[in-house]
Amino acid sequence: MQDNSAATAFEPFNVTLRDGREVLVREIGEQDKTGLLAAFSRLSADARYTRFMAAMKQLPEAMLEQATHPSPEREFALVALAMGPDAPSIVGGARYAAAPGSDACEFAVTVSDDWHGLGLASRLLRVLIDVARCRGYRCIEGYVLSSNTSMRRLARRLGFADVPCPDDATLRVVTLKL
Ligand SMILES: CC(C)(COP(=O)(O)OP(=O)(O)OC[C@H]1O[C@@H](n2cnc3c(N)ncnc32)[C@H](O)[C@@H]1OP(=O)(O)O)[C@@H](O)C(=O)NCCC(=O)NCCS
Q1: Which one of 52, 93, 107, 108 is separated from 146 by 20 to 30 angstroms, measured CA to CA?
Q2: 118 lines ligand 1 (CB under 6 A)
Q3: Is the CB of 111 under 6 A from ligand 1?
Q4: Measuring CA to CA, which residue among 94, 99, 93 is closest to residue 74?
């Protein structure tokens, strides 16, 4: 049984990355639609493909709406914001979602290309793991392209098992018991 009573209790926090740059990590909200579209437009074609497993030129409105309105009962989503010259911009995001009644949730994480290798995805995923555990999930898993060595190494470093996906030879399933 999941306990989402902590759904409003997530406190934003600052993270100093490996190169000294700082980001603010907070829950996603309706106000992030424009920032999310801008972040998506800056992603390389490769990064879009590895995240969505499809060639996507634009983020469809329905996905944008869903992304910025996570269901408090079974979803949780974070954005990482960097201060730009004018306004903060989204440089990373991570989320999990669970099917109704399930004690397992599925994560996804994306970091802007010019912010790779600084520990941001690791940090976001650690937070997701903690939140999922606190809310009563027993397992967190992700579907990752077999060729996505960066994501697979990161997941293994955090203790995830990395096994072939039974339905698709191009995919791996990374799973962590909580
Ligand atoms: C996969 C992805 C999320 C990784 O993001 P990231 O922020 O670069 O990840 P991290 O910085 O936490 O870890 C990546 C590397 O940096 C290294 N690193 C991070 N912090 C470090 C530190 N403090 N000291 C030394 N090395 C460090 C890690 O060792 C890791 O190296 P490795 O890939 O050789 O094992 C990013 O490449 C991405 O957004 N890809 C496109 C979307 C995608 O594939 N998402 C996954 C499917 S859900």
Answers
A1: 93
A2: yes
A3: yes
A4: 99
The tally of domains found in the chain comes to 1
Note whether residue 145 is domain-resident.
Answer: no
Query: Which CATH number goes with the domain that contains 132?
Result: 3.40.630.30
The answer as to whether 49 is a domain residue is: yes
Taking the centre of ligand 1 as the mean of its atom positions, its distance from the CA of residue 9, in whole angstroms, is 27
Give the span between the Cα atoms of 166 and 161, in whole angstroms.
14
Pocket flag, ligand 1, residue 155 (CB < 6 Å): no
Confirm whether 142 is domain-assigned: no
Confidence of residue 3 (pLDDT cuts 50, 70, 90): low
Distance 6 CA to ligand 1 centre (A): 28
CB neighbourhood size of 10 (10 A): 15
Print the domain residue range for 67: 5-136
End-to-end CA distance of the chain: 14
Band of pLDDT at residue 8, cut at 50, 70 and 90: low
Tokens of 112: 């802007």
